[in-house]
Structures are given as structure tokens and as C-alpha cells.
């Protein structure tokens, strides 16, 4: 049994569609399980005008009855309110109006290569699907995955550790309780002083017509040991997590734990020593591996770190080429954000939750959520896991 997500939709089209296949029957859900994270995805200092238009909510069209999953695929729709302003330009059917094509690809975006690959003359045929607006559908699907994980005692959280040149102090001791007020920060940073400096950095570079990237961290608490496998490359959980994170728009780097930092340390300062006592069973005093060894979860909190590049749509466009005339021209200037690192952390939560939910489904199976719970509890008893 596997869990699979598929999305469809364009940035300014009628809406986005998400289908999640593989959830067990009997999982209880509330509308807030889906809509809470959709609202959180719209948070963050540095967002643009689009967030003032969209008030995202997921509408369930299949797979749920009276607040419980049926075991069949769950289909969700997220409407694009801005479609009212784009109905002629993005109508699924031919329109009488003359629609001007976009011929100015943006450096750093899918625009140019997409038009070449799919034989489009209009860049909008590429940029609409390549837009990060698509992640609203992922977050909706991630809400289903989170609800499933929550039923098994797993919680997924995120926080921002860097925006531009401003970074927060490293924290190795974070617990689930530490994330209680993270969304109250305008940049979703756990350190208030650093968060204020991040806001200033965004304001400074926005005035200079620049966009900013950054780093966020996703942590999952309560994950059992042994998800994933060492026996084949495609079953290694860290590989699956890396692919899921880098699939998010503008992500350029990922590590499980402090991966890039560990490259500069000797082995004695990298690996997590193993202990055992009658009260705790096997345990570690450190979690430098980020909760994964040999492609499998260790039972320690899972830590995934993602690096996001600055957004490619700039208020002062970079140099480009008109694909119709081949003449030099400034790139397309589309409505944009200064930074979306705080929102990207919420998308990262969704992707980590989807990977973990799939790993639980593959390992424990079960047609009903009670079957899954029983299988998980039986496994914990067999391996004597006492968390």
C-alpha cells in the first residue's frame, strides 16, 4: 500500500485540484485539518498583492463522507479567486478577444526551457503551471497526510532559520512545544531578535527591487524507527525526502540534519553514539544524523533543512530575449513577492508529511485506520521502542 499525491491547475486558471490516493478508511477529519495550513501558507512578511486576493480553502469533492475517509481517493479543489480578472486570458476554451502572447522569459524560471521543450510560442503556457501557486494544492493534500500522521502520534513543524544575510542561532534542542508560537512571527522565526532583523533585511532589499531567498527547517516528532530501507536506493527515506523538498519551487539545496556542516567535521563529532538502559531501551544523546541512518528513520526527531533561492520575478527585471523577435529585452514583470521563505516552510511541512505518510502506508498497510494503529503498536512492541 502506497500513498500518492497528484495536483493539477494553473496559477490564474479556475482553480487547483489535488488528489490523494492511499489513505485508509475511518480517518476522522475536520475542515480545519485542510484549511489551517492553507491560511498559514499565505503568511509571511514580504508577500505580494496576490495574497490580498486569495483566501484559500479546500473544497472536498470525493473520498470523504460525514468527516471520515472512505478508503478511496480524496479529491480537493482550491479556487483561484483572481480567475475573475483573468477569465479571458486563462479560459479553458477559445475566446473571441485577442489575447496578447508573452514572449519575455525570466532568468531563473521555467519560462524559456519550457517553451522550447513543449513547443509553445506563449510563455504563459509554461509560467502558469510552473508558478508556486501550485503549492496550495500540495498544502491541501499535505493536510490529509498530517491528519493521518497525527492519528499515529506524529507531528510535523517548520521554522525559518535564514532570510538573505540574516541567520538565526542554531538550535539542537528543539521540542514540539517550542513551535507553539512560530506563526506569530512575521517571518516564522523562533528567535524574536533575529526575526526582527529578517524583517529589516526584507524591507531594505525590497526598496532596492531585489528578492530574497533563505533557509527553513522541517522537524517531525514521534516518528518510529525503521521507516524506509537500506536495501535499495529508491527505498532510502533520505533520498525520498530530498526529492520531495527539491521539487518545491525555487529550492536549490537540502540536507537531513546539518549535512553540509558535517562535511567539515571529524567523524567523532558527526555520528550519534548508541546507548541502552532498562527505562528507555536504545537511545541517542545527540541527533546529528537528523533522524535518519542508512536510509531509515532512527526514532529521533526527523530534521530536514531546505535552501531556497531568491524568487526569479523581480520588480526591476533582468536582461532577457524576446522569443518571437530574438531581440534583447527586459524579462517579464509579473506580480510577485519579495520573499516567500516563511510560506515555503509550510509547503516543506506538507512534502515531508506526504513522504512520511507514504512510508507508514508502505510499512504498515491497513484498510482502516484502526488496522494501521494496531500494526504500528505491534511493531513498537516487537522492537521494544519506548517513546
Task: Please identify, by name, the CATH architecture.
Answer: 4-Layer Sandwich
Number of strands: 17
Strand content: 15-25%
Mean residue pLDDT: 95
Low-confidence stretches: none
What general form does the structure show?
globular
Q: Estimate percent helicity.
A: 25-40%
- Spatially, the strands of the biggest sheet line up as 8-7-9-15-10
Compute the number of structural domains. 1
* CATH structural fold name: Chorismate synthase, AroC fold
C-alpha termini separation = 26 Å
- What's the Cα radius of gyration? 22 Å
Main sheet summary: 5 strands, antiparallel
Number of discrete helical segments:
11
Q: Which CATH class is shown?
A: Alpha Beta
Backbone structural class? alpha+beta
CATH superfamily: Chorismate synthase AroC
Element-level helix/strand string:
EEHHEEEEHHHHEEHEHEHEEEEEEEHH
How would you describe the overall organization of this protein?
- The two termini are 26 Å apart.
- The chain has one domain (4-383): Chorismate synthase, AroC fold, CATH 3.60.150.10.
- The strands form six sheets. The chain has a five-stranded antiparallel β-sheet with strand order 8-7-9-15-10.
- It is globular and about 75 Å long.
- The mean pLDDT is 95.
- It has helices at residues 31-41, 50-53, 87-90, 111-118, 124-130, 135-150, 192-207, 237-246, 259-262, 341-364, 369-383; strands at 4-9, 15-21, 58-62, 64-65, 68-69, 74-79, 155-163, 166-167, 214-221, 251-256, 274-277, 281-284, 292-293, 296-297, 302-308, 319-321, 328-330.
- The protein contains eleven helices and 17 strands.
- By secondary structure, the chain is α+β, with helices and mostly antiparallel strands.
- Helix 1 crosses helix 6 and helix 6 crosses helix 10 (341-364).
Amino acid at each position: 500500500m502506497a500513498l500518492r499525491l497528484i495536483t493539477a491547475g494553473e496559477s490564474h486558471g479556475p482553480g487547483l485540484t489535488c488528489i490523494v490516493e492511499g489513505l485508509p478508511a475511518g480517518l476522522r477529519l475536520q475542515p480545519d485539518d485542510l484549511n489551517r495550513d492553507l491560511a498559514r501558507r499565505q503568511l509571511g512578511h514580504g508577500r505580494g498583492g496576490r495574497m490580498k486576493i486569495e483566501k484559500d480553502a479546500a473544497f472536498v469533492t470525493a473520498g470523504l463522507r460525514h468527516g471520515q475517509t472512505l478508503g478511496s481517493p480524496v479529491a480537493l479543489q482550491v479556487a483561484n479567486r483572481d480567475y475573475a480578472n483573468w477569465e479571458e486570458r486563462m479560459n479553458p476554451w477559445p475566446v473571441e478577444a485577442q489575447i496578447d502572447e508573452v514572449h519575455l522569459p525570466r532568468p531563473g524560471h521555467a519560462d524559456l526551457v519550457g517553451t522550447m521543450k513543449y513547443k509553445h510560442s506563449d510563455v504563459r503556457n509554461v509560467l502558469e503551471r510552473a508558478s508556486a501557486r501550485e503549492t496550495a494544492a500540495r498544502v491541501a493534500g499535505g493536510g490529509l497526510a498530517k491528519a493521518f500522521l497525527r492519528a499515529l502520534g506524529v507531528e510535523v513543524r517548520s521554522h525559518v532559520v535564514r532570510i538573505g544575510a540574516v541567520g538565526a542561532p542554531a538550535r539542537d534542542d528543539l521540542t514540539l512545544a517550542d513551535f507553539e508560537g512560530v506563526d506569530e512571527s512575521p517571518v516564522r522565526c523562533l528567535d524574536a531578535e533575529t526575526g526582527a532583523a529578517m524583517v529589516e533585511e526584507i524591507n531594505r532589499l525590497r526598496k532596492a527591487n531585489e528578492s530574497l531567498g533563505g533557509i527553513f527547517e522541517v522537524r517531525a516528532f514521534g516518528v518510529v524507527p525503521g521507516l524506509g530501507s537500506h536495501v535499495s536506493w529508491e527505498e532510502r527515506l533520505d533520498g525520498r525526502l530530498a526529492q520531495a523538498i527539491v521539487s518545491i519551487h525555487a529550492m536549490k539545496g537540502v540536507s537531513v540534519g546539518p549535512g553540509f556542516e558535517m562535511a567539515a567535521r571529524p567523524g567523532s563529532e558527526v555520528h550519534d553514539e548508541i546507548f541502552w538502559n532498562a527505562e528507555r531501551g536504545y537511545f541517542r544523546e545527540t541527533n546529528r544524523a537528523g533522524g535518519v541512518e542508512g536510509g531509515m528513520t532512527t526514532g529521533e526527531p526527523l530534521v530536514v533543512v531546505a535552501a531556497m533561492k531568491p524568487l526569479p520575478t523581480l520588480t526591476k527585471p533582468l536582461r532577457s530575449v524576446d522569443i518571437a523577435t530574438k531581440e534583447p529585452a527586459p524579462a517579464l514583470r509579473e506580480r510577485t513577492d519579495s520573499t516567500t521563505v516563511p510560506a515555503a516552510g509550510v509547503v516543506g511541512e506538507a512534502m515531508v508529511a506526504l513522504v512520511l505518510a507514504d512510508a507508514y502506508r508502505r510499512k504498515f498497510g491497513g484498510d482502516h485506520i484502526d488496522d494501521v494503529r494496531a500494526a504500528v503498536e505491534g511493531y513498537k512492541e516487537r522492537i521494544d521502542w519506548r517513546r
